[in-house]
């Protein structure tokens, strides 16, 4: 895949992601976060695959993608855990 194609896909993904996220009402945001952890796991697998390619640039971008995807997964589970804690009887 050449650079222009990659940048076009990246820009379109950012635009679509922003449009989808801004349309979600605040009351649904936390439950959707727990559901999106599976998607973040898939992103993490893709990031690991990107980190394994030959070339220095692919390794650097892949390692950054692994770090960001891991932060996203951990943050999603932390938010879900906190949300579920709100429903426990005291």
Explain the overall architecture.
By secondary structure, this protein is mostly helical. It has one domain (3-85). The chain is 84% helix and 0% strand. It has 3 helices and no strands. It has helices at residues 3-22, 26-51, 56-85. The longest helix is centred in the last third of the chain and has 30 residues, at 56-85. The chain is flat and about 55 Å long. The relative contact order is 0.11.
Question: How is this fold's topology laid out?
Answer:
Elements lengths: L2 H20 L3 H26 L4 H30 L5
Which regions are unreliable across 5 or more consecutive residues at pLDDT < 50? none
What proportion of the residues form beta strands (DSSP E)? under 5%
Mean pLDDT: 81
Cα gyration radius (Å): 16 Å
- Termini gap: 55 Å
In the residues, how many domains can be counted? 1
What is the count of DSSP helices, taking H or I runs of 4+ residues? Answer: 3
Main beta sheet, described? none
Order of helices and strands: HHH
β-strand number: 0
Q: In which range does the helix fraction lie?
A: over 70%
Provide a brief overview of the structure.
It is built from 3 helices and no strands. The protein has 90 residues and is mostly helical. The longest helix is centred in the C-terminal third of the chain and has 30 residues.
